[in-house]
Amino acid sequence: MRKRKAFSVCSALAMVLAVTPAFGAVSAQEAQRLGKDLTPMGAERAGNAAGTIPAWEGGIRQAPSGFQPGRQHPDPFASDAILFTIDKNNMNEHADKLSAGHQALLEQYGDTFRMNVYPTRRSASYPEYVYEATKNNATTAQLVDNGNGVEGAIKSVPFPIPQNGLEVIWNHILRYRGEGGRRMIGQAPVTRNGTYTMVMLQDEFIAPYHLPDAVEADLNNVIILFKQRIMAPARLVGQIFLAHETMNQAKQHRMSWIYNPGQRRVRRAPNVAFDNPGTASDGLRTSDQLDMFNGSPERYNWKLVGKKEMYVPYNAYKLDSNELSYKDILQPQHMNPDVLRYELHRVWVVEAVLKEGMRHIYKRRTFYVDEDSWQILGVDQYDNRDQLWRVSEGHAMNYYEVPTLWTTVDVHYDLQSGRYLTVGMNNEEAFGYDFSVELSARDFTPGALRRDGRR
């Protein structure tokens, strides 16, 4: 991938909030574990005692033959056979490795939902400069402003040896996902009987935080520039959303704008955050559920429960395949289990409980975060009665052309309505993720949004 020079992004806010005592960095001695008994990203390098989780040996280091950049990804593990299947009849035998959400899905949709478990493949890998940055961040990164911001980190996760739940969540927010790219994806709000209208989205992003020569002082608090354009259906075509995501959410929440094709004007969109309904999601996800979780963590208290072996979606290359149609995948009540892959991995478990006096439709959330990549792989969301409401899965795989581990499809199951939402589908599209596309900071300004809307 071509290296881009770091650049500055102007921040709109001059106000500076008082900084609370900072915490987070580990000692130089402890950081020396990275690349030794810990992987360069902070996971346990060794496998488990039972031998069901192997040692990490570097992950996927090159793309398989036949891969074309910008297209769907051939499955490097296509020959793997299913080890066993978990269904409603044997779920109790595996309950200690199942999330509350997966148990609920098996109970509620037991006649059709099941989990095919495959051999564990620790495929996560990253560029060498990301590994080096991770080790540097370990001794310098700090949480500031009551955990609503991070300082002393650049290019990679700030807390590879986390001490609390907030550090794990910030690792997800700041994990490496490439320097920039474009994708055409489908978002499908599926009704209880399996019908849907596919919403096509074109996403573009640049990540100044992740550039190889990025310098924290040059960021002006902006970590990612993101633009999303609705391409279908006709009634929604032309709406464009732009966001500048920030590293210290206390100094400045994300700056966001929307171009409305009916009005032909750009306006600020400060409410695209927290539990505001997600774009064209039919109310099936909140704004902060995009990418499994994004934005400010300020409304919750975060508790690190610990690390646990669990069955989670992983190496979802079959779900990315252009040999499948959308109808092959989208079925009533849940995705087709025959195209889903689950593996046993170690995950960090983080509980988020709504703070007193704060508002959100989810009173409580449980996050399951991959130790190898800091990608959130699952979330259980509870309503204000403290009843399990929605179950989210991040079906992840290694984008080996970068390389980075990221999801190909996120799915949000609503247990109360029997509906669900998928985000990220590209099986029928001419291209998927293109991490080599040339983009500039000039493409991510309100003025550019106005020009895009009038083309």
Describe this structure in words.
- This protein is mainly β and about 450 residues long.
- It has one domain: Lipoprotein localisation LolA/LolB/LppX (outer membrane lipoprotein receptor (LolB), chain A), CATH 2.50.20.
- The protein is about 10% helix and about 30% strand.
- The protein contains 6 helices and 18 strands.
- Strands 5, 6, 7, 8, 9, 10, 11, 12, 13, 14, 15, 16, 17 and 18 form a 14-stranded antiparallel β-sheet that branches. It has a two-stranded antiparallel ribbon with strand order 1-2.
- Strand 7 and strand 8 form a beta hairpin.
- The chain is globular.
- About 45% of the residues are buried.
- The N terminus is likely disordered.
Task: Spell out the key features of this protein.
outer membrane lipoprotein receptor (LolB), chain A, 6 helices, 455 residues, two-stranded antiparallel ribbon, mainly beta, 14-stranded antiparallel β-sheet
In short:
The chain is mainly beta and 455 residues long. The chain has 6 helices and 18 strands.
Layout of helices and strands:
Elements: H1 28-31, E1 84-86, H2 100-108, E2 115-117, H3 128-138, E3 142-144, E4 149-151, H4 165-173, E5 180-190, E6 199-206, E7 222-232, E8 240-246, E9 255-260, E10 265-268, E11 300-313, H5 326-329, E12 342-354, E13 364-370, E14 376-382, E15 388-399, E16 404-414, E17 419-425, E18 433-434, H6 446-453
Antiparallel strand pairs: 1-2, 3-4, 5-6, 5-17, 5-18, 6-7, 7-8, 8-9, 9-10, 11-12, 12-13, 13-14, 14-15, 15-16, 16-17
